[in-house]
Design brief:
The protein is of the alpha/beta class. Helix content is about 45%, strand content about 10%.
Length: about 425
């Protein structure tokens, strides 16, 4: 356990040191002078001296650019989740489970149904195949039924049942998703000439007090061995992940857990109650350094357009405005006119294209600063995600209710940025 605690404390220390950088909102870059407010003086001055005019050629900003930047990036990279020395990979799973049983192929693994991905896109296929394989290995620990929380349209549930012969109770709070899962099940049955399914779909809003065993009895009446349950979720949203972890700790019948979280920004709650991240910080944790690094183009011009627009909105007394997505990006005047109309500004109050162009020109020299500033924040986002994941696995370990708990990188982070799972056993 100490290995995670040590890394977690280093992460928190780094985040506190750069708290202004992670808590700020990028739309305020110009109006709140975030360049001066959020960056350490030595780093800021070094960046101003070099201007990093070629930074777009390599989004990872090589370490030979200067001492202060080198130190910042080196520390951020060393504290990201993928740099934690105790992060597990897929190949480590058999050893992780070895104390509980001798992992081998599931009896149904490799059957003729293996590899069916009807009605899935590539990203979902990648995620479902890997997570289902982990669930199949967990099922070897006990005779199990799987509860798939936030099951959506049932991609994971169906794949687990058809390829590994494991019964699944698929729960989602959305009636629309429930109807979609039933429709997909009917289509697959028709296509594959199936008469029965091991998946039972249920619309239910779950929380940490949900009685899953009552739901199993009511919805899976033919399943008697319900005392050994695997709890899982693929990209469980916001506070749903926390509810799943608490349920695992508080229930004797749930023997194993494998959950992949997402949407950190939809909850400010922490399991240990000892710290709290702002919504801006949690939004930043959603950023993907891997995806940004993979792209060859510059950051979207909408980021700088929005910051310039904030200057105008503030002068109108309307700074607390959310613009949203979908704006045209041909040029700043086009963007600004669209945005102002969207928020209900009358045409006579909207500045002319010439005035808008002049406003943009007044601040264009700040664009390179803002682009670099945002890239530095994205590096911090990786550290924030590490803090969130580490706090959760430490919570499980300190509860003393489980014999093992670990963080595993399951997915390709470019294809699926929320790639980390927490696995725990009792």
């Amino acid at each position: 356990m100490n290995e995670y605690v040590d890394h977690f404390q280093k992460v928190l220390s780094f985040l506190r040191e750069h708290q202004n950088l992670v808590d700020c909102h990028l739309v305020d870059f110009i109006t709140d002078n975030l360049w001066e407010k959020c960056l350490p003086e030595k780093l800021r001055l070094q960046l101003q001296e070099t201007k990093l005019t070629n930074y777009l050629k390599n989004k990872r900003m090589q370490d030979d650019i200067g001492t202060e930047l080198h130190n910042f990036l080196k520390c951020a990279k060393s504290l990201a989740m993928d740099a934690c020395p105790f992060l597990l990979e897929l190949k480590d799973i058999p050893a992780f489970l070895s104390d509980h049983c001798n992992i081998k192929l599931h009896p149904n693994e490799g059957n003729n149904n293996k590899g069916k991905f009807e009605f899935m896109k590539n990203k979902k296929r990648h995620e479902v195949e890997i997570l289902a394989g982990i669930i199949s290995k967990l099922s070897q620990l006990n005779s199990s039924i799987v509860i798939d929380i936030g099951a959506g349209k049932g991609y994971l549930s169906t794949y687990i049942s058809e390829n590994y012969g494991i019964p699944v109770l698929a729960i989602d709070s959305s009636k629309t998703c429930h109807n979609g899962s039933l429709k997909r099940q009917q289509l697959m049955r028709k296509k594959n000439a199936q008469s029965t399914s091991l998946v039972h779909y249920l619309v239910h809003h779950v929380n940490e007090n949900t009685d899953y065993f009552k739901l199993i009895k009511e919805n899976c009446p033919n399943y008697e061995q319900w005392s050994n349950v695997i709890l899982t979720g693929l990209h469980t949203c916001g506070s749903l992940s926390l509810a799943i972890l608490r349920t695992f700790i508080n229930s004797e019948q749930i023997k194993s857990l494998c959950v992949v979280s997402c949407c950190y920004h939809l909850t400010q709650e922490c399991l240990n109650g000892q710290y709290e991240f702002s919504k801006n910080a949690r939004m930043l944790a959603q950023q993907s350094m891997e995806r940004i690094s993979k792209k060859e183009e510059s950051l979207s011009p909408s980021l700088f357009y929005r910051a310039v627009l904030q200057v105008l909105l503030q002068s109108m007394g309307k700074s607390e405005i959310r613009i949203g997505r979908g704006a045209p990006l041909k040029n700043f005047p086009t963007y600004a006119i669209w945005a102002l109309k969207k928020i209900g500004i009358h045409s006579e109050e909207i500045p002319s294209e010439k005035e808008l162009e002049d406003l943009y020109t007044n601040y264009i020299e700040l664009e390179w600063k803002m682009n670099i500033f945002q890239l530095l924040r994205v590096y911090m986002g990786s550290v924030l995600e590490a803090a969130i994941q580490l706090e959760r696995v430490i919570y499980l370990q300190q509860s003393k209710q489980c014999s093992k708990a670990a963080i595993v990188q399951l997915f390709n982070p470019v294809l699926s940025p929320r790639c980390y799972a927490i696995i725990a056993l009792k």
